[in-house]
Amino acid sequence: MAISGFYKGKTAVITGASSGIGRDLALLWASWGCNVVLVARRVELLQEVADLCREAGAKALVLQGDVADAQTMLAVREKAHSEFGFVDIVIANAGVGGLNPATSFDLEIHRRTMEINCIGLANTVVPYIPSMVQRRSGVLVAISSLSAFRGLPKAATYSSSKAMQGKFMESLRVDLRPHGVHAMAIHPGFIETPMTAHDDFRMPFMVPVRKSSMLISKAIARRKSLYLYPWPMKILTWLNRMMPNWLYDRLLPRMSGQSGDIKAKLL
């Protein structure tokens, strides 16, 4: 069966759907006959995405919301169930990037990042677990990052938030497997999205967003336990994990291309 057949007739909730990976996944899956529930804070951009999804022949529901707000995300679930009856796929894509050097560490940036990337992930996927367990069907997906596997220079906040996402989804996967529900983490490298539209550090092996969407779609359809891409960055990540600390500490700051005066900021 073609990958598109896996998505035809299903319903997917996608957070962070107003731009980047979330937007492109919605457009791609809509073209394959998947109904989409689009969630983000920027409702005007969501309406544009929804119009394109409807033009492709899919149903699209627009819901404004901040994933850090648990009550809002519960309301999203209720509206999604009311509109479509059952949600087959949940994509926890909403997130923030950023830099937070130890020498100028910003606790407010740390708090907000954790609220969105970590608490927001739980707020997004947990509400769907009861219905999926009851039906013994469904896929829960977190869009994490390759930065999850080692603490990157000037990225204590971001790297730790992404590591948490990976471990969270791994535990859910173990717990939910006997109930027919699949949980997984996707770990991309650098993708051509608004989040990477800066020059604060080197971003090798950049992947076009549509190619990224195709890779993600295949990984979900094949029920991968986790998925790392693109392959050159996957290899570099493996090498980083194997590298002894004394070498890692000296080599990674030089390889990152970061300037020495970087200040804490969200991206």
**What's the CATH H-level superfamily name?**
NAD(P)-binding Rossmann-like Domain
CATH class: Alpha Beta
**Strand tally, please?**
9
The CATH architecture assignment turns out to be: 3-Layer(aba) Sandwich
Q: Sum up the overall morphology in one term.
A: globular
| Biggest beta-sheet profile | 7 strands, parallel
Q: What's the domain count?
A: 1
- CATH fold descriptor: Rossmann fold
Mean pLDDT: 92
Distance between the termini: 39 Å
The run of helices and strands is HEHEHEHEEHHEHEHEHHE
Which structural class do the helices and strands define? alpha/beta
Beta-strand residue fraction: 5-15%
Q: What's the alpha carbon Rg, rounded to whole Å?
A: 18 Å
Helix content: 40-55%
Low-confidence stretches: none
Strand neighbour order, sheet with most strands: 3-2-1-4-6-7-8
Question: With helices defined by DSSP (H or I, 4 residues minimum), what is the helix count?
Answer: 10
Describe this structure in words.
It is built from 10 helices and 9 strands. The chain is of the alpha/beta class and 267 residues long. It has a single domain, classed as Rossmann fold (3-Layer(aba) Sandwich), CATH 3.40.50. The strands form 2 sheets. The protein has a 7-stranded parallel beta sheet, sandwiched between helices. The protein has a two-stranded antiparallel ribbon with strand order 5-9. The longest helix is centred in the middle third of the chain and has 21 residues, at 156-176. The protein is globular, with a radius of gyration of 18 Å.
